[in-house]
Amino acid sequence: MHILVTNDDGINHPGLLALAASMKKVGEITVLAPDHNWSASGHVKTLHRPLRVRPTKLPDGTPAFMSDGAPSDCVALALLGYVEKKIDLIVSGINPYANIGDDVTYSGTVTAAMEAAIGGLPGIAVSLDTPINIEGEKDFSAAALIAGRVAARVVDEGLPRNTLLNVNVPYLPLEQIKGMRVTRLGLRVYRDELVKRDDPQGDPYYWIGGEAPTGVPEDGTDVGALNDGFVSITPIQLDMTAYNLMAEISEWKWE
Question: Domains, the chain, ranges and CATH?
């Protein structure tokens, strides 16, 4: 079993180190991750410039590679031949904050796993639901252990083609996590606001700011599972077709 490990927070992030250590217990690993933070980068494919990859090491001495591309670029590089040995599974994370609901469309962590699915391989995205008020070093130990369990189960059972698992772990000690729930995507509530400022030349520039997002803790959703102290495991498919609307829209007068 050969596992590609990547993330969107950069090669030096402690979440990546914890994930790599956990995946070593599941199989052989190759680490290929961005050389800087790509959080909220979405699904990027870099075509307008060359991509560079350099060898490096994780803080524990694990050999790794870092690229100036996005997380999805790192996966593409590996699958297109930069990594010569056949890859069986791709695991992305551990993101320090949850990726739930509509977050999956923004998240570099999740879209790295989507790139795996596009490449015909099983992908897993792992995120930790760290409270905003937690400062300093974060504890990824429980999330890393959960990631190992999920990866081992995927190795044993497999995933259908063009699907991935989005895993979110509550920020709790392992013994306080109540279990795992298979969930659907919930409702993320964003409180974005546009902040306008002027630069020293008097020209305006803008930040998209606002309060941290929340969610509606409905039963059966990723938001609800985390709220209740459970790990959320959401299967995601690449086919986003709204099949329930096809018949209705076919009746519209298109001529």
Answer: 2-187+215-250 (3.40.1210.10)
- Residues 76, 67: contact at Cβ < 8 Å? no
For residues 34 and 85, give the distance between their C-alpha atoms in angstroms, rounded to a whole number. 20
Report the amino acid identity of residue 186: G
Do 229 and 170 meet the contact criterion of CB atoms below 8 Å apart? yes
Indicate the Cα dihedral angle 138, 136, 104, 72, nearest 10°. -90
Contact 177, 97 (CB under 8 A): no
The H or E element spanning position 205 is strand 204-216
240 φ/ψ sector (left φ>0, alpha ψ -120 to 50, else beta): alpha
- The answer to whether residues 187 and 221 touch, using CB atoms and an 8 Å cutoff, is yes
Question: pLDDT tens string for the chain (255 positions)?
Answer: 999 999 999 999 999 999 999 999 999 999 999 999 988 888 889 899 999 999 999 999 999 999 999 999 999 999 999 999 999 999 999 999 999 999 999 999 999 999 999 999 999 999 999 998 888 899 999 999 999 999 999 999 999 999 999 999 999 999 999 999 999 999 999 899 999 999 999 999 999 988 888 899 999 999 999 999 999 999 999 999 999 999 999 999 888
Instruction: Report the predicted TM-score, pTM, of the whole model to 2 decimal places.
Output: 0.94
Strands (E) across the chain are located at 2-6, 28-34, 53-57, 63-67, 89-95, 123-129, 163-170, 180-182, 187-198, 204-216, 231-237
As given in the structure block, the two tokens for residue 212 are: 């941290």
Question: Which tokens in the block code for residue 105?
Answer: 């469309």
